[in-house]
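ok so i was messing around last nite and threw this chain in just to see what happens. nothing serious, just curious
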Amino acid sequence: MPAIVRTICFLFFLILVASCSSNGRDSSAVTDTVAKLQSNDTANVETSIVQKINFTTEIWCNGSLQAGQKAIVPFEVQGNLLKVLVQNGQWVAEGQLLGQIDDYRQQHALAQAEINHRQALINYNDQLLLSGYNSNDTASLPDQVKSGAMLRSGLLQARLELNKARRELSNTRITAPVSGIVAGLLARPFTPSSEYKNFCTLLNTREMTVIFDVLEHDAALIQTGTGIEVFPVALSGQSFRGKITGADPMVGNHGTLTVSAVLPNTSGKLMDGMKVKVVVKNVVPNQLVIPKQAVLARQNRQVVFTVEDGHAIWNYVVTGYENSTHYTINEGLKPGQQVIVSNNLTIGHQAPVLVSNPVK
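result:
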């Protein structure tokens, strides 16, 4: 016999006994008993209305930060370091002098290259005279005669050596190729440059790049310009906003897609190599939306209870997108239905319920 039927029979019995009693007891005791039984048998629930609205998806990912611009400063020439003019953590401007290598060998090579170049010019003029021309006949000098004289005189080779010597001398002065913060600097004065792999690394951290992976089935939600929120692991409770700049068109071996985004670092708190949590937010229009509390797992399926005529009605549903607080519904519900969002773990199909927040 269903519980509701037993309850009704018992209530009828109590009323009958009360009416036949000759001891004149107050009937309020029976009324209190009835109210108590009704209270015990009816679940108080809160509900929410199924709405068709624009839904904001959330995809949570792990990622890492990189400096927006990163430049390795190498030793273009080898030699003994005479000066190291910067230190780690220092901001430097593009073109600023960072260090100096002993340039004796380069100065000597340049002087020799200049001598060789002057000698080659003399030889070049001699070749032109042998051909019936001179270096002043630039307008009437045939290209074939000119190129032959330069080759035979060694002027072409001398120019190459002179340019190389000038470049190597210039490279003894180590300058910043870009503006940024000095990092990875190990070099010390009066040591050979061969002791180090590079002079330093320059990091422009005023704008950061975040690299993260998303699952293949979420690829459709990744679009250039989509907003993200970044939560550095080392900065608890702090978040930073940025935008997606692109995604690798190749899916990796683990079924993921590598995505990159940029975010400003005006506070200077973000550092190259930081581990972060990333949430990608995207708006999907015209979705049926309900709170997550309404969705239960029953019989390996998703179930939502709706309220109809004071009773809980069991509905199988198929969810779609989700964020931290809501699901979208692909099947099983209609707009305007009342779904139960509290005290729904123990109720059953057609159980009597009392809505504590009725829709007005």
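not much to say yet. The CA atoms of residues 216 and 253 lie 11 Å apart.
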